[in-house]
Every structure is written in C-alpha cells, then in structure tokens.
Amino acid sequence: MRYEEWEPIYHEICDYFSFDPLEDDKAAHILSNLTNQDATQKLRTLINNQVVTVCGNAPTLENEINKISGIIIAADAASGVLIKNDITPDVIVTDLDGIDDYAVELNKNGTILVVHAHGDNISRINSWVLKFEGPLVLTTQGKPFGNVYNFGGFTDGDRAVFLAHAMQARKVNLVGFCLDDQDVTPMKKGKLLWARRLLKKLGYEC
Ligand SMILES: Nc1ncnc2c1ncn2[C@@H]1O[C@H](COP(=O)(O)OP(=O)(O)OP(=O)(O)O)[C@@H](O)[C@H]1O
Ligand SMILES: Nc1nc2c(c(=O)[nH]1)N=C(CO)CN2
Ligand SMILES: [Mg+2]
C-alpha cells in the first residue's frame, strides 16, 4: 500500500488508540540510528512470486501447523510456537514484544527480522536491536524514510500480510488468525479489530 493511501487510515488508528504520531516518528528515527542494515532486497527475492504462509498467534495456530507451506512468515510470538514444533520461520515480523533470545539465534542463521518501531516500544528497540547480527528490515507505521519502510498494516499479523503482498507473493495463506477472539484484553480486542478491518481491505475474512 502506498503511504498516501495508508496515511488517512493511520490517523484513524492514532485517534482510536490515542497514539501520538510524533512518538512513532521518534521511535523510527531511534531505530534507524541504531543500524544501517537494510535486507529489503533479500526479503523481496525470498518472497517474490512464491507461495507464502503468514502465521498469526491465535491459540488455533498449534492445530493448524499441518497447513503451513511455502515461505513461512511468523507474526511475533507465533515464531515461538513454530520453534516448539520444529519449524524455522524464514521471516519474523515483530515489534519486539513477542520474541525471546531464540530470535537472535535464528537471525544469525538467516531468518530475516522485520523490526517495527512505534511510540510504545522505544525501550525494546534500545535493548534488542544491537543484539541482532543477521538480516534486518526496519519498519514504521508513520512516514517512511531512509532504511525505514512502511508496507502498510498495523498489528504484527496484518503487517506481515501487507508485507507479503508488497513483496509480490504469488499466494498468501493465513494460519493462526482468529481476529474475533473474545478471550483477550480490551486493548488487544481493539488491535484485533483493526487487524480484521485492514485484512478485509486485502480480501481476507478472519
Ligand atoms: N487470536 C489472536 N490472538 C493474538 N494474536 C492474533 C490472534 N489472531 C491473529 N493474531 C495475530 O498474531 C499477531 C502476533 O501475535 P502476538 O501474540 O505476538 O501479538 P502481539 O505481538 O502482542 O501483538 P501486537 O504487538 O501486534 O499488539 C498479532 O499481531 C495478530 O495480528
Ligand atoms: N504507538 C503504538 N503503535 C503500535 C502499537 C502500540 O502499542 N503503540 N502496537 C502495535 C502492534 O499491535 C502496532 N503499533
Ligand atoms: Mg508484537
């Protein structure tokens, strides 16, 4: 999605959650200043024209492992579920609140980390990013610049789907997405509602 198309949606999201866009920009600049890494071309080569499975972290993921095929993109904590099931994600899309030290090891061995900056993860950016030795792609939900991209999307899960579309995947399958999950906090419910709205724009009903 082009930024011009994304921007009005982004402002609606900021109004909904009372997020401050200036804090998002501050986070994106902190991230960009920590590393000049840019594995976007590697990511594009990996995904272009391929079948991709994006794994969300709904409780159903564990029962849907057998549906995974092609290039595997894990949304944040879904990566831990995959690892427990002996599956190595090719890509992890994360705002750094759902991963653990295993992500540093995976990244060292080639898993691409797509690290998202926002106003509420600045401390996580500062504590995690310098530990990563492998390929990184940096993202923002605000205006992109330099080595910081915006492919559209909001939560780790729907952002992963927007990313796969932006990288021209041939087909994008979703597993572990249950966006009307009622067994979550009010904040999470709001985030899943937005994920659902955004994925609907790409033609997915989940
Ligand atoms: N029922 C569900 N519960 C949680 N996540 C879900 C669910 N269904 C789909 N997802 C997707 O899985 C992604 C990764 O889940 P995780 O539990 O790591 O969330 P998170 O990292 O705390 O979410 P975020 O940081 O995006 O707020 C979410 O961003 C969401 O898009
Ligand atoms: N400012 C801000 N932005 C976000 C947040 C968040 O908690 N705060 N969470 C996200 C993942 O769902 C994506 N973007
Ligand atoms: Mg997260």
Automatic annotation (TrEMBL):
Matches recorded under InterPro entries: HMPDK_MptE (IPR027510), MptE-like (IPR002826), TPK_catalytic_sf (IPR036759)
The keyword Amino-acid biosynthesis belongs to this UniProt entry's keyword annotation: no
Alphabetical list of SUPFAM superfamilies matching this protein: Thiamin pyrophosphokinase, catalytic domain
Cofactors demanded by this protein: Mg(2+)
UniProt GO BP: tetrahydromethanopterin biosynthetic process; thiamine diphosphate biosynthetic process
Biological or metabolic pathway of the protein: Cofactor biosynthesis; 5,6,7,8-tetrahydromethanopterin biosynthesis
Highest taxon of the lineage: Archaea
Keyword Magnesium assigned: yes
EC number: 2.7.6.3
Gene3D superfamilies assigned: Thiamin pyrophosphokinase, catalytic domain (3.40.50.10240)
GO-annotated molecular function: 2-amino-4-hydroxy-6-hydroxymethyldihydropteridine diphosphokinase activity; ATP binding; kinase activity; magnesium ion binding; thiamine diphosphokinase activity
Enzyme category, top tier: transferase
Signal peptide: none
Domain 6-hydroxymethylpterin diphosphokinase MptE-like residue range list: 30-177
Pfam families, per database record: MptE-like
Keywords: ATP-binding, Kinase, Magnesium, Nucleotide-binding, Transferase
Catalytic reactions of this protein: 6-hydroxymethyl-7,8-dihydropterin + ATP = (7,8-dihydropterin-6-yl)methyl diphosphate + AMP + H(+)
Family membership noted in the UniProt record: Belongs to the archaeal 6-HMPDK family.
Chain's role: Catalyzes the transfer of diphosphate from ATP to 6-hydroxymethyl-7,8-dihydropterin (6-HMD), leading to 6-hydroxymethyl-7,8-dihydropterin diphosphate (6-HMDP).
Protein name: 6-hydroxymethyl-7,8-dihydropterin pyrophosphokinase
Record organism: Methanospirillum stamsii
Gene name in the database record: mptE
